[in-house]
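New to this. Help decode both lines:
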Amino acid sequence: MPSAPAKPSDDRVRCGWASGGDPLYESYHDEEWGVPLHDDRALFELLCLEGAQAGLAWITILRKRESYRSAFFGFDPERCAAMTDAELEERLADPGIVRNRLKVYGVRKNARAFLEVVAERGSFDAYLWSWVDGKPLINARKGTGDLPASTPLAEAISKDLKKRGFTFVGPTIVYAYLQSTGVVNDHTVTCFRYGG
């Protein structure tokens, strides 16, 4: 059964997952999630954060986001690609981020793969949005329970990203990434953000 729409602190109806009145979660839901994103640095940031989230709650990553930005040069892909092992080891001692060796080293690996896509396609934005002909896919989800963990689109992009050398880009992570970047708009039909 679909979850009931949430009515948090300001009485606007939001997607069920953004309920509970946490201002950070509400702000992310209201201002970012499902909004078409075309800035390469921001696309790189979300790719890294979605990978860091694997196995954890998204709110955990949102709470650590500023620490991540500080640790990884504001997610400048060129600076992240050039990080030394010593710099990455320093990050593993930072309590402000998720201190998982594979995830921390994955930022550098993904930065290098990201820059290769940029060199090939002109921008990561051009690459990502080419999968949907430049237009967001707008679904009509009735409740949070209707959200799939993955889709054939996410599986195809995941396979391509892995082939290109990215890590932490399984189909579930990629689908969450597509939602967060607005390539897919999965706001529920009762949510005030549905349809834009």
Q: What stands out?
A: The beta strands are 137-138, 184-185. The domain at 37-185 is CATH 1.10.340.30 (Endonuclease III; domain 1).
